[in-house]
Task: structure prediction
Amino acid sequence: MRFLAGAFLLLFVCLPQSALPFTSDEINALETGIKGSPVGVRVAWWAEQFIGTAYDTDPLGDYVRRSLIVADERVDCMYLTFRSVELALSDNSEGAVDKALVLRFHTRGLVKDGKVINYDERYQDGIDMIASGKYGLEITATVGKTREFAEPKSGTRFDFLPPSEIHAALHRLNTGDILYFVRDPARTQGGLIAHMGIIKIETRNDGLGRSVYLIHASGTKKRGGSVKKVLLDDYLSHMQHAGAKISRLSEAR
Result:
């Protein structure tokens, strides 16, 4: 059985990384192959399977518009995070759907006739995902020296890491960490969190260090885009966000 699971895993890893959506049977085979890996590795591995997937340009979100849990054909940054974590915390495709009904909502997702009927109760801002604790323990203040952000309308204050601090603390990041990029206070449209992505750490080819990558849905609702894997330092040097908050999942969930 281990050989068969390994063979399935090898087959799907060798497919183009834009191979999603997988069938339920394919997801189940892949889940078997990565079952023993640490949770952060599983989160990043699933995020990688979305590389090349088209960016979801529906302002509401294609999955919300169609009232679906699984809508892997097009993704935005929130759906990518939702789905990667749900798959990582599950043993099969059905389990990932059950996880979604818990993880995506302030309350709990309700399904009737195959459609989600209470997506109005979903998390719509990454700041609520962090506060829920469902996406891991917030580790922002333990990674580097934080700054404070004042939400323009409410005046609510919270801390975040500016780009320089994230750069200085790359060695403290782990595979599977979730970065929630804080909106520049000058850009008042939208929620407090402007973007999010998942960290993947890889050993450099020379074996003398490690490279820190960000897997994220790169694009906009107007122009589109796709899921990409980029060096985090490169992303930090070009981004227009004020900085980021960070959460980390543990096995005890």
In short: The first helix runs from residue 2 to 13. Residues 1-18 have pLDDT under 50 and may be disordered.
